[in-house]
Design a protein that fits this description.
The protein is α/β, with parallel strands linked by helices. Helix content is 29%, strand content 19%. The protein has a six-stranded parallel beta sheet with strand order 3-2-1-7-8-9, sandwiched between helices. It is globular, with a radius of gyration of 18 Å. The structure holds 2'-O-acetyl adenosine-5-diphosphoribose.
């Protein structure tokens, strides 16, 4: 079976009703990114940041995967698929994808403030626990924090993602502005023999000289078109 790697970003969840970050009316217009999504922001005002992610987490209860996520899962019938996502939502899982690497963490999980990547203290929240409060403690006694990779922090899963990208026969970039590294750099690991597709309704500036087939559509329609081209 051929290996297909998907690099997804906020745009794949837009049709489910989750805001992207950098489009007009995106999240970073309403909330200063360094305040709510950096380690410095968390240290300056943990409560504000915890509440910001409580809101994002609770939103998961109101949204559903869209056709874009569903077709990513359906590709598993034809290819050995790995989804590398920058998204912290759980819509790829809920659509049925099996191999998912969350580069920027997961909203449904919490961890230690002392050592966010210590697996002993990473815990999946049940829906009734989705509201984390100041004073809630991780197993090591530190404040429980969202299991999110913030600006200024390591991206522990980038190595796993790069190994997958290297093996890709087909690499699909969907719904990401390719602004954030190291995620955007994954394309550099993809073999020149691989076919690269981009699904995005807008032009995306990608720093490469290689051929990329741009399917200039939203996630659902774009994934349908991709299926027609490769299956
Ligand atoms: P961006 O908001 O930067 O980019 C979203 C992309 O999705 C843009 O290229 C849009 O054109 C595209 N888009 C919009 N609607 C779409 C649709 N219906 N179908 C397909 N594409 C659509 O989001 P990301 O690139 O994911 O990190 O952002 C990367 C990281 O920056 C995020 O993971 C987050 C953020 O800061 C952290 O918070 C650590």
């Amino acid at each position: 079976m051929k290996k297909l790697v998907i690099l997804s970003g906020a745009g794949i969840s837009a049709e489910s009703g989750i805001s992207t970050f950098r489009d007009s009316d995106g999240l970073w217009e309403k909330y200063p990114v360094m305040q709510v999504a950096s380690i410095e922001g968390y240290e300056a005002d943990p409560e504000l940041v915890i509440n910001f992610y409580n809101e994002r987490r609770k939103q998961l209860l109101d949204v559903k995967p869209n056709q874009g996520h569903v077709l990513c899962a359906e590709l598993e019938k034809y290819f050995d698929v790995t989804v590398v996502t920058q998204n912290v939502d759980n819509l790829h899982e809920r659509a049925g994808s099996h191999k998912i690497i969350h580069l920027h963490g997961e909203l449904t999980k919490v961890c230690s403030s002392y050592n966010p990547n210590n697996p002993r203290y990473i815990r999946e929240l049940k829906p009734e626990e989705f509201e984390v409060k100041m004073g809630d403690k991780a197993g090591d006694g530190s404040q429980l924090r969202p299991f999110i990779v913030w600006f200024g922090e390591d991206v522990p899963r980038i190595g796993d993602a790069a190994c997958e990208a290297e093996k890709a026969d087909i690499f699909v970039i969907i719904g990401t502005s390719m602004n954030v590294y190291p995620a955007a750099g994954l394309l550099n690991y993809v073999s020149y023999n691989a076919d690269v597709y981009l699904i995005d309704p807008k032009d995306v500036r990608i720093n490469t000289d290689r051929k990329i087939t741009h399917i200039k559509k939203g996630a659902s329609e774009g994934m349908k078109e991709l299926m027609r081209l490769i299956v």
